[in-house]
């Protein structure tokens, strides 16, 4: 049976697609959400300045009392929800968190800079030892300045991890 679940805040009721009335709801964290009985508009302010700041604060205050705040936040992050207050965070806060998380997440092995670290590190180190600039290293390795910067950042992070 395929179930279509509403994405409204706090609304966990689902509608069976095949007409099976016996399966009329999907139990999940939204049943326990503190926002379930709140006005939905509270969590979707029309702006981020002036009078909307108080609305945002009120919405976040409801989130702080919620027993499933972490689940709500995780859902919003997983689904890249770009509007509204979820899990005590507005869209700007969620975007910043996602950017930070992407930077520290395990690198994808198909990235050029990861391949340089794994396969061409001695070549990179030799160019650095010559005192070449980032753009000269990039030309020497037939890659981009951004890739070289990523290699440098990864090596610096690795050095910091080893030092601690």
TrEMBL record:
Keyword Disulfide bond among UniProt keywords: yes
Cofactor note: Binds 1 [4Fe-4S] cluster per subunit. Following nitrosylation of the [4Fe-4S] cluster binds 1 [4Fe-8(NO)] cluster per subunit.
Cell compartment(s), UniProt: Cytoplasm
Record lineage: Bacteria, Bacillati, Actinomycetota, Actinomycetes, Kitasatosporales
PANTHER family: TRANSCRIPTIONAL REGULATOR WHID-RELATED (PTHR38839)
UniProt keyword terms in alphabetical order: 4Fe-4S, Cytoplasm, Disulfide bond, DNA-binding, Iron, Iron-sulfur, Metal-binding, Transcription, Transcription regulation
HAMAP family, A to Z: WhiB
Span list, region Disordered: 1-27
Cofactor: [4Fe-4S] cluster
Family according to the record: Belongs to the WhiB family.
PTM section of the record: The Fe-S cluster can be nitrosylated by nitric oxide (NO).
Stated name of the protein: Transcriptional regulator WhiB
Function noted in UniProt: Acts as a transcriptional regulator. Probably redox-responsive. The apo- but not holo-form probably binds DNA.
